[in-house]
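Usage example:
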Amino acid sequence: MASLDRKTVEKIAQLAHLKLSEEELLHYEKQLSVILDYMQVIQQAQVKLPEGWRSDTEQMNLSERVDQAEHSQVMEKVLKCAPKTVGTAFQVPRILE
Amino acid sequence: MPHLEILQMNARDIASKVQSGQLAAERTAEAFAQHIENHQLLINSHIEWDKAHVLAEVDKQIAYIEAAKFAGKPLPLAGVPIAIKDNILVEGQAISCGSRILQGYRASYDATVIQKLRSAGALLFGRTNLDEFAMGSSSEHSAYGPTLNPWNRAHVAGGSSGGSAAAVAAGFTPLALGSDTGGSVRQPAAFCGVVGLKPSYGRVSRYGLVAYASSLDQIGTLARDVQDTELLYRVIAGYDEHDGTSYPEPSPDALKDWSESLKGKKIAFVKEFMGAGIQDEVQQAFAAALASLKEAGAELHEISIPSLSLAIPVYYIIASAEASSNLARFDGIRYGHRSQKSGLALRELYQQSRSEGFGREVKQRIMLGTYVLSSGYYDAYYAQATKLRELLKQEFNAHFQAGIDAIVSPTSPVTAFPLGQNVSDPLAMYLSDIYTIAANLLGIPALSLPMGRDHKDLPIGLQWMAPAFQEEQLLRSALVYERKRTGFESIRPGLR
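Running the assembly step on the lines above writes:
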C-alpha cells in the first residue's frame, strides 16, 4: 500500500493544513515513502484479541468534578498571547477563498 | 563555601544545608548561575539563559524559603537549581518547544510540576533546548541549534531532552526536568552519563506539558545519581485533578529501608534486544552489568517478547497520529506565529502560518500521522498499531506476572553519535529507539543510569524497566547497581 506518490503527499499536506514548496514535496515524497515502506511490516501480523480488549482505556480515572460554574479569570492572559485581537475576540481573516 | 565546592554538591545535600542554614540559597544560585554564564554557549544547553532574570526570580523564591524555614515547613528542594525543558509551561515566561511557531507566546499558567517545584523551594534555572516539539533523538531538530554532548562536543547530547541532560552532565544544575515519549529522557541521560527516570504513565501530571503524543508522554527527571532522582521524583509525582490520566494512588517512599542486595530479585534480559546493530562496547558493558547484578544476588533470566520486532512501527504510527492531532492547535489565531503575508483567507492563513513556523521533522511527523489516520489507511495502520500495542503489553505482563521483577537492557544500541550523522536518514534515528519505546507503549516506569564508557569516553547507559507503578522497586534495584558498579565512577560534572 505504501510508496507515496506526489498527489498523495499533496493531499496529506492539505489535510494537515501545511503548504509545501516544490522542493519540500519532493523531499517528503521520498522520506515518507521510505518510512511507510518500513511501517508496512505491521500489516502482516495477525492479531487476535478478545472482545473488550481496550485495556488502555480501562485505567482511566473518570471521577467527575463538581458541576459548579466558576470564573476562569484567564481572559486577559489569553488575549495577551493572541497575534491579532479585536476587543475580546480573536481576529480572523475571511473564511471563503 | 567556595563556588567550586558548591558546584560539586548534589541536590539532597544542597537542600539539607540550605534548610539547616549552613548554606545560603543566594550563594548556591550565584555559584551555578556563574558556571552557566561561563560555559553555556559551549554546549548550547539552554534556549534562553538570562542570568539577571533568573536571579531576580530566585530572590522571590528565597523570600519564600526563608518564610518556610521560619514556619518550620520542610522544603525538599530548598535552594536547588533546576533546569526546565522548554516544553513545560512556566507562567509569564516565553516557551518555544524548540520551534519558531510559538514566537511571542508567553505561558499563561504554571504547569503542575512547576507549582510543585516552587512549593518545594527549588530555583528555576532557565529553559533548556530540545528537539522541536520533543520529536527527535538528538536535539539537532531544534530551531535554536543543536545541543552538544559535554563529554565530547563533536557528538550529540541525545534527545529530545538533550538540553536538560547536558545541563546536568556539565554541572550547570544538579537537577533538570525533561519529557519522555519514546525515550526522550532516558536516551539523552545515557548519552550524557546522567540518571534519567521516566515514571509510570499517570504518576506525574501532564498539565502544562505541551503535548506531543498524549498516550505516551510523561515528564521525567534528570539527575546525577539515583538518590537525587528519587528526591525529585517524590516532589513531582502525585495525583492532579487537572490531568484526566493522573493516577490516584500516592507513591510510597521509594528508598526507605533500601538494602544493598538484589537477593531474591528476578531480573530479565530480552532475547529480541540482543540482535545486530549494537555497538561492541555497549554489548560488553551490558555483559559486565549483568555480571554485577548476579554478584549482587539477582537471579538472571532470559525472556522472549516476540512482538518487539514490530515495536518501532507501532510506536511511530501511534506517536505521529497523536502528534498530528495535538499540533493541529498551532494555527496562528490564538497564540504563536501568524503569517504576515497579506490577502490570505482563513485556510491559507493556517497553511502559511504552520508552514512558516514548523521545522522539517515536525512537518514530516504531522504528515505521517495525518496519513495513518486518514480514510482508507486508518485500519491498516493506526487501528492495527493499537492492537499490536495491546499484544505487546500482554507479552510483557505475562513475564511480570510470572515473577519477573525488572527487565534490563542497554538504553541505546549506540553511544552518542556524531553531529549530523543521522539527521537526513529518516529511519536511522527511529531505529535507535528500539530499547526505550516499549516503556512508553506500556506506560511502565523506566530508568537509565551510566554503566560504562566507550573508547571515545562517551557514556553508556543501562536501562531498567519495572511493572507499572513500581517506581519504588525500580529505584531501589538501580541504587544497588549504582553502588556496586565499577565501569563508571560517580559523575564529576564538568565539560571536557
